[in-house]
Protein: mRNA m(6)A methyltransferase
Organism: Candida theae
Amino acid sequence: MHSLDSFQHFTDFLLSQGDTILSSPINGELWKVRGVFLEFCKEDTYHTPTTYTDFIDYLRLFQTLSGGSLHFSTNLSHALTSTISRPRLIWINFTTIKILHYRLRGLAPPKKQPARRKEAKSLLDFISQKASTPTVELGQVTRLTVEVMTDFLHKVTARTSLGRERAKLRTFKVPFPQVCSDSKHALQLANSGLNKREYISSSKQLASEYIVHQRIQQARNALSAETYQCSLGKIHFLPILYNHTDVNLGDCSYLDTCHKMRTCRYLHYFTLNPLKSESAMKMVEKDLDYTIGQCFSESFRSITPPQWINCDVRSLPFGILGKFAVIISDPAWDIHMSLPYGTCKDDELLELPMHELQDEGIIMLWVTGRSIEIGRRALRKWGYQISDEMIWIKLNQLKRTIVTGRTGHWLNHSKEHLLVGLKGDPRWLNLRVDTDVVVSSTRETSRKPDEFYDIIERLVGPHARKLEIFGRAHNTRPGWLTIGNQLQGVSLHEPEVKYNYEMYISQNPN
Ligand code: SAH
């Protein structure tokens, strides 16, 4: 019998000899191989096979142990019977020998820093790169195996790559606004573009951006060429000098979201964005070849027009709306602040029959301050697993991070949180296309950035059913159904929903 330990010698032997025992003068002849092996073990003969027969037995066991890593010219059993066609060793699978070597020694493979490989561009590229990596060096095999696995695990899937490609085709590229830093430009443009009569009496509405651009165009000769050119390409904040403005006080910290603009003595600005060129306004979308598991006709199927229902969400039976792939909800949490709309109690929100709206999919819930915890509780109660959290970093009119937020008891809040919940196993989501941070300007009270809709649409695809709860008129969008109590009337296009809603109204006239 041979102990497991005794085979350590043989793997040591094979790895140290390499191919030399296969060629002249040994030529893989087993009696010679045995001789060299005994010579190799001469200091430790305790475990080595004693006779030639014993050596053949030893080889047989080694074959079983190493998964047939030795190749012989004929069957090994002829070694003891045949005198004419004795098997010779003709090939050694060093890869499996090395694996066995480390297993027998109970060792971890040597920690050699892997050379940084060039990033493969495609999966094919990646595999051929692996195939061409030589594996003869001692210890490299096990390392490669782990490495290959890790690489595969971290490699973005074809689905993700396709999702990103598709997003590129479908998405407007909006350059991050370049703001002019030359205050002289803003002053000159204000003189030409803002009509003093409009704002000296601050009861008058300021002109639209388009009119201001027209005025600047007309006054072009009075402006320096540099200022005019700059007005076409960058954002300018034109100072508005109301009668009550005291320039020495500096900028109003609320800027364009100031609630007392008509009396506030701090400085306010008019935002003059560069005129958008026609080509920039055109949708970039080309013919899409990428379908990522969705119906391939989606690129030419029209999207359902915006749909909405004015209602109190607490009394609308959600069952009539059908199921949705994604829900976004910006509840009117009672956060003890004066808000220009009614709010709901925590319990009322928690009691909403959300389970009727979704069997599988994703939900996004806006939360703030105190409601972060209630929001988490609500999601879990509604059967979701909280999978992510997105934030919106708020920018003020001057495109800088807000420092004087209107919310926050101890710190001024400059961001808002969106909890992301997951129900079921929605494999159809386009994963890892967008990030969890959106940096965008504030608008009306509570109004959220449109970027979130774009992110959701990329995540679920244009034709997936999408629902917004607590939405307002400016939130209505193609492909979406919006419900809330500040919407005007009802507009439905999906025949089933329309039918269900009419039935519901006919049975509940009030
Ligand atoms: N996300 C929106 C803001 C939502 S503010 C945006 O981007 O503009 C919350 C909205 O929920 C308000 O319009 C408020 O009037 C509405 N709301 C409050 N209680 C409601 C209720 N019980 N049913 C329906 N809508 C309600």
Remarks:
- Residues 312-314, 330, 332, 341-342, 344, 446-448, 470-472, 475, 484-486 surround S-adenosyl-L-homocysteine (CB under 6 Å).
- The chain has three domains: 4-104, 178-278, 307-507.
